[in-house]
Structure formats: C-alpha cells, structure tokens
Design brief:
The complex is a heterodimer. Chain A is α/β, with parallel strands linked by helices. Chain A is built from five helices and six strands. In chain A, strands 1, 2, 3, 4, 5 and 6 form a six-stranded mixed beta sheet that branches. The mean pLDDT of chain A is 89. In chain B, helix 1 links the parallel strand 1 and strand 2. Chain B has a six-stranded mixed beta sheet, covered by helices on one side. Chain B has a five-stranded parallel beta sheet with strand order 8-15-9-10-11. Chain B is an alpha/beta fold. In chain B, helix 1 runs parallel beside helix 3. Chain B has 14 helices and 17 strands. Classes of the chains: A alpha/beta, B alpha/beta. At the A-B interface, helix 1, strand 2 and helix 2 of A face helix 6 and helix 9 of B.
C-alpha cells in the first residue's frame, strides 16, 4: 500500500482513462467534461480524467496506482480517438494491464472521437467488447463524437446532449 | 555613526504624540506579525494597541505548547514570518544554537519564543516612532462610529475599559473546535468531556485515565496522542469519519517542481485533481517523492483557489478537503515515528467510525461507535472524551462575544462556504450589506474561506506585510508616509 494519494481514502466515483497519443487532446477535453457532468449527477464528488500519454511506463506497464483508482471507481469512462479504424493502442495497453475482471462491478462508458462516419461503430465493435471482457456493465449507448459534430456542437454541447439522455439512466442504476 | 546621532544619548526615547491608532485584537502569530510590520514601517506618531489577555503576546495558542513532542509541521528554514527577511528566524536560532539546520523540525515553543523576541526587538527599534501598548484583556465588542467622517472604532474590553482606534485588525487565530453530534448534554457539561484540548490544563486529568477517546484523526489528534500516550498513559482510541491520518514529511526536503497548474489556466477541479494524480503517479513510477506534486502548489494555492468557480469550491470543501489536508499538511518525521510506535504498541487504535451516542454511565463514558452502515454499533467504554476535530473559523460557530456581536450588527458575515469570515482581497471584513469595511480587517486563518489556506506562517507573514502597508497608506494623511523596506 502506498502512502500517497492512491489509497482507499481517495476514491473518485467517476474515473476517465484517456488513450490519446497527443497531450491535452480533444478526447481528454470531451472525457473530462462527461466525467465531470456525470460526477455531478451522481454523488457530486469530483471526477478525475487521467491522460495516459502523460504517464511513464515501467516494464511496459502503467503505474500500479492507476489500478487502485479504477478499483475504487463506480463509473469508468474509456476514451480514445479512432486510430486505424479502432481505438488507440495506448488504451489497449492500459486495459491489458488491469487485473482479471477488474471492471466486474463497474459501469463503463466507451467514448470515441471518429474522424469519419464509417468509423462511428468502432466504439461498439472494438472498445465495448474489451470493457465487457473485463467484467464491466455498459448500460448506455457509446459516446461517439464525429469530428464534424465536435466542430458544430463543441465539446460542451456534445457532453450536454449525451448527459441529458444517458446520464440520467446511469444515475438510476443502483449502486 | 551611532555617536553622531544625538538623540540616542539623551535617555529613554519618547515617541511623538500619537496622531493615529491601530488596534490589533489577538496576540498570537497573526497579531504579532502584523504589529511587527506596522512598527517597522510606520512614520512617527503611530499608537499601536495590542489586545491580548496573555502576559506576553507572541506565541498565541499554536506556539505556546511546552511539550517537546509538539513539533512545527514545516522545517525551520520555511518558517518565514517576515517576507523581506527570510532568514530572520534562522539567524535568531543560530545566535544561541549555531548548529541549527534549516531542514530541522523544531519544537513549536521555539517559534513561540522567537515571536516574543521579535516583538520585543521591534518595539525597541521603533520606540522613537511608535507608542506600543499591550492591553491584557479580551475584546468583547466593537462599535463603529457614524457613517460620515473618518472611520473610527471603539473596542470594549472585558476589564471595562474602551480603546478607540482608527483601524482595527482582528487576529483571532484558531477558534475552539465545533461540537460533535451524538454527545449527550450531561457529558458535554462534565469534566469527562474536553471540548477544547488546547485550553490551559485541559489534559492534566487525562494522564491518570485508563482509556480516552480522541474524536478526530488529524494533526490535533496526533498532538494529543503524543501528549497522553506515553508509558503509563491511557489507552487511546481515535475515530473520524474517514479514519485517515496525516501523511508524514519525507526525511529529505523534496525539490520543488513546476506546479501542475497555474491560476491563469483557470482549470476546473476535475482537471486540477487529475493533473495532481498524474504527477503523483509519475513520481511513483520514477521512485521519486510524491510530496513534490503537492508542495509545488503551495506558493499558488491561494490564487488557484480563487480561480475555481463557486461550484468547484463547494465540491472541494465537501469532498476533497480532507484528502487534500492529510497530504498537504504533514507530520514531522519524528512525530510520525512517535505515532507509529503508539500504534504498534497498541496504545493507540485509529478507526473510521461515526459516534452514534456518547453518554455518562456509572462514572465512565459509554460510546456507541458506528463502524459501517450494516452492523450494530460497537460499544466502547472510556474515561474521557477529547474533541480533536480541529479549529473552527466559521464565525457562526465561534463562541466569542466579539464575533457574535459583529455578526449581530451585520458588520461581519460568513463566507459562502462556511469555513471562514467573508473578507475582500485586502482582508477587510465584508458585512451583511456586502460592502467591505473601511476600518476593520481580518488576518490569518479567518481569511480561509477566501484563500482556502491562511494558517501557515509564511502566508500569514505575507498578509501581515501587505496589511501593514495598506493601513499605513490609509493613515498617511494624518501620519505621513511610512518607511519603505527593501528585501535584505
């Protein structure tokens, strides 16, 4: 057990894990917005959004502290841009490093930004099964943002629209 | 040079007739540092009245304890009371003990003695310009003059006298802890409940007890556990909602890094928390000290706090302040080791629990602890209950007639979060009419609601310097321009 922040005393209810290979990406902004909005609809405890690219790998693994963060959460948002028709390898590396059934009692939300409409299903075809495989429950539609929508609606607009529909569903799922 | 100064030779120096008065209510660290800065900076003709019931102002509540185990929570080199003379405390220490190192965590009483000596030294240096009075009394009410004309205030003291001042500084320090729900009135009124562990002689009787319940698991509890928990002392039980203990300082002082966020970025609380967590995780994977991530925020904490919107400030207070506190306000390494010894030897047991009920029963205290939502409460029998929940600064909860009076007059209101007084950026009290006062200011932890953290000496030192400049500039019309001090 560490004596730093990642201990049982600090367990944000909503945790977003962002796998974009660029820092401060639009994926991070969108995921933070959703996490923040969801947290407010749930208990109000502030959410966190971890930008995987900021972290350093040790023996090809992310810091074990992140696993504590995930295990303490109720809702996990897995966020990525579409890369080569699927989600980013960075996010896959993180998911692969989680213990077996790490998401067994979690609600998970696949979140992806798609450059073109033909990539819009990547979240459901690739990311959702990975989360399900880890034991997660995925009760909402995936959040897929087309680049054109990001431009026309803006990150905040997309977040608001998604929260209005799916956020209320999530709030209704018993803890 | 000194010989050329004719005045020095003509016996005791006498300051000129006072033309303006500043009164400081409270003679702890905040009040003392304000008094020192006013004296150092004032033009001739200032009357400075320090109102404090203790025989010798300076240490206040925080630095009065003579228990050697009660240590400063920051290393000596960071106890900077005078921003323009950052080495003053170290120089003072080295005059008597040349071996003192800046990274030592000294007994709190040492800093108390420094404050006393600093006040005395400054009085001597300023005796030709400033008339200093220490009134050994407690201020019980402040009345402000009629609206027009220059503001002046009358301060009523509990010895029946009245001090009239042009400006008043409230340096009330830490208020006694707020009451804990669940404690029966009969116990509250008995000597077996210690409502304020810092009151004179509060712990004397507890030394002979068999078992003591400490409510709270923060730094106050740590001090009390170390005071009581020696060989032959009582068995200690400490409880709080989270059961979290303050973290320890590392054995070495970590190097400050670039802060994870700046106020100009106007990050949300989610962004700030995420970046801090990321920084801690990076430090962890590099085998570095996680404390750097927290310490990098220290110089900008006040500004970061003010860059958050009201919603995020509220969420921080309700959800994150505890977790922030245990990482940010840490124990000296030696204190942490002492606490660990108590835990290992089973003299201290720390648990996450709520208090359902505590009441007198057959001469002892029966406490029903709520350990979780499902199980029946657990019965604990102790001889004494000590409230270690830490100081309060919410004016509504302070049992000071002065504060209650000001609240009643509408001269004071709580900040929107209920953690301190409402003040403007200069520290002027903001009253019920939302208008900052022109005559009454608050300094130190009373400003917590606006700044988040105003409890540590370096922050208070900066506030004292700025407030002194502001007051003297305000009074320059009657007093003349003050002295300008440049950094040493």
């Amino acid at each position: 057990m560490t004596d730093n922040l990642f201990d049982p005393g600090f367990a944000p209810e909503v945790v977003a894990i962002v796998g974009n290979t660029r820092r401060d990406s639009r994926t991070l902004k969108l995921a933070s917005g959703v996490a923040d909005g969801l947290a407010e609809q749930l208990s109000g405890t502030p959410a966190v959004a971890i930008d995987l690219i900021e972290l350093e790998l040790e023996n090809r693994a992310f810091p074990v502290e992140l696993n504590h963060l995930v295990s303490g959460a109720r809702v996990v948002i897995a966020a990525s841009p579409t890369i080569a028709g699927s989600y980013a390898g960075l996010l896959k590396l993180f998911l692969d490093g989680l213990p077996e059934a790490a998401l067994i009692d979690k609600l998970a939300i696949p979140l992806m930004i798609a450059r073109q409409a033909r990539h819009a299903l990547a979240a459901d075809v690739h990311l959702r099964p990975a989360l399900l495989e880890l034991g997660a429950t995925c009760p909402t539609p995936s959040l897929v943002a087309l680049e054109s929508e990001l431009v026309s609606l803006g990150s905040d607009g997309l977040v608001a629209a998604w929260l209005e529909r799916s956020g209320t569903w999530l709030a209704g799922v018993p803890a | 040079m000194a010989e050329a100064d004719g005045v020095a030779a003509t016996g005791p120096a006498r300051p000129p007739e006072p033309r303006a008065t500043v009164a400081i209510v409270g003679g702890g660290a905040s009040g003392t540092l304000t008094a020192v800065q006013l004296m150092r900076r004032s033009a001739p003709g200032l009357r400075l009245v320090l109102i404090d019931p203790s025989p010798e102002p300076g240490p206040g509540l925080a630095y009065r304890t003579e228990n050697e185990q009660h240590r400063l929570n920051v290393p000596a080199g960071q106890m900077i009371g005078l921003p323009d003379r950052p080495f003053d405390f170290l120089d003072w220490l080295r005059a008597t003990s040349p071996e003192t190192q800046p990274h030592e965590y000294l007994p709190r009483s040492t800093f108390g003695r420094y404050l006393k000596s600093l006040l005395a030294r400054t009085r001597r240096e300023a005796e030709r310009r400033v008339r200093f009075e220490h009134r050994r009394a407690t201020a019980i009410a402040i009345t402000t003059g009629p609206g027009d004309g220059p503001p002046s205030a009358g301060i009523e003291l509990d010895d029946g006298s009245l001090v009239t001042a042009d400006r008043v500084v409230l340096a009330l320090g830490n208020g006694r802890p707020g009451d804990v729900p669940g404690i029966e009135p009969e116990l509250l009124g008995s000597p077996q409940y210690v409502g304020d562990p810092w009151a004179e002689g509060a712990l004397d009787r507890s030394m002979r007890d068999e078992a003591v319940l400490l409510i709270g698991t923060g730094l106050t509890m740590v001090d009390m556990a170390l005071s009581l928990g020696g060989p032959g002392g009582p068995t200690l039980h400490a409880v709080s909602r989270h059961g979290l203990l303050p973290r320890a300082h590392g054995d070495t002082m970590p190097i400050r890094r670039r802060p994870v966020a700046t106020p100009e970025e106007r990050c949300s609380l989610t962004e700030l928390t995420s970046r801090l967590l990321t920084e801690v995780a990076i430090a962890g994977s590099r085998g570095e000290d996680w404390r750097v991530a927290f310490d990098s925020l220290r110089p900008i904490t006040n500004d970061l706090w003010r860059s958050l919107d009201r919603r995020d400030q509220k969420r921080f207070v309700s959800d994150l302040s505890r977790i922030w506190g245990i990482h940010r306000h840490r124990m000296a390494p030696r204190v942490a080791r002492g606490l660990e010894r108590l835990k290992v030897s089973r003299r201290l047991r720390v648990r996450a629990a709520g208090i359902e009920r505590a009441a007198l029963e057959d001469g002892r205290v029966a406490v029903d602890l709520h350990l979780n939502r499902l199980d029946e409460p657990e019965r604990l029998v102790v001889d004494r209950v000590i409230n270690c929940t830490g100081p309060t600064w919410d004016p509504r909860r302070l049992d000071s007639p002065l504060v209650q009076g000001l609240l009643g007059q509408g001269a004071l209101r709580t900040d929107g979060l209920g953690i301190g007084f409402d003040v403007d950026l200069d520290g002027a009290l903001v009253g019920a009419d939302a208008v900052p006062s022109e005559g009454i200011y608050a300094i130190g932890p009373l400003r917590n609601g606006v700044l988040l953290e105003a409890t540590a000496v370096p922050e208070i030192g900066q506030q004292a310097e700025q407030l002194a400049d502001l007051l003297l500039a305000d009074l320059a019309g009657t007093l003349g321009s003050g002295l300008s001090l440049s950094a040493a």
